[in-house]
Amino acid sequence: MNKDSINANLIANKEWNKTYDNLWDKEIKYDDWLDSFKEYIENTNKPIIDLGCGFGNDTLYLRKMGKEVIPCDYSEIAIKNVKENFPDIKRVECFDMTKGLPFTDNCTDVVIADLTLHYFTKEDTFMILDEIKRVLNKGGVLFLRVNSVEDVNHGAMQGEEIEYHLFKTSDGRYKRFFDEDDIDFFFKDWKKLYVNEESMKRYKEEKILWKCAFVQL
């Protein structure tokens, strides 16, 4: 990881803490995006890793399905809120994904990364994906959503372009936007289960994103 990437990660930590501390609506909300993959979620008895859990939207969904979840986030404020909202959860992790995942090899069948994997350089993105592969069992599934290049309501293609489709925002964070070729590029070593460009209405303005599922080969 280069110096600029390290600085961007430090800025990201500060800004995410600020975001979660100041957010006016802290109610946990989830949409139905994981319904498409219900059979895979129902068939695992292992803890599900929820990367970039935020306030716990997907954690709540998974808990309502009766699943054991390990919520993870880079923001200490987000993790504090998750602990308060889910006091019965056995394990919660706060860490920087660019330094690896604090899990043993082949420890889970399912990893969730909802609006989580689009904040990194190409090098860091591939490293994180390798780490996700490491913790997944063979045949395990990664369910994710990432920004689309069509996501104009949420800053698509704005700011200083650091890498192709990776931009530095006004607050110093990195933000990547994906087209279909980008999805194919970053996930070329995974088996494609589902890939589709969709919209989400959780926020005040419509968000355009890629909803995907990939299998660990």
From TrEMBL:
Gene Ontology biological process terms in this record: methylation
A Pfam family annotated for this UniProt entry: Methyltransf_11
InterPro entries linked: Methyltransf_11, METTL2/6/8-like, SAM-dependent_MTases_sf
UniProt keyword annotations, A-Z: Methyltransferase, Transferase
GO MF entry, a single one: S-adenosylmethionine-dependent methyltransferase activity
Highest rank taxon of the organism: Bacteria
Keyword match Phosphoprotein: no
UniProt domain Methyltransferase type: residue ranges: 50-144
Annotated protein name in UniProt: Methyltransferase domain-containing protein
Organism, scientific name: Eubacterium uniforme
Lineage, top ranks: Bacteria, Bacillati, Bacillota, Clostridia, Eubacteriales
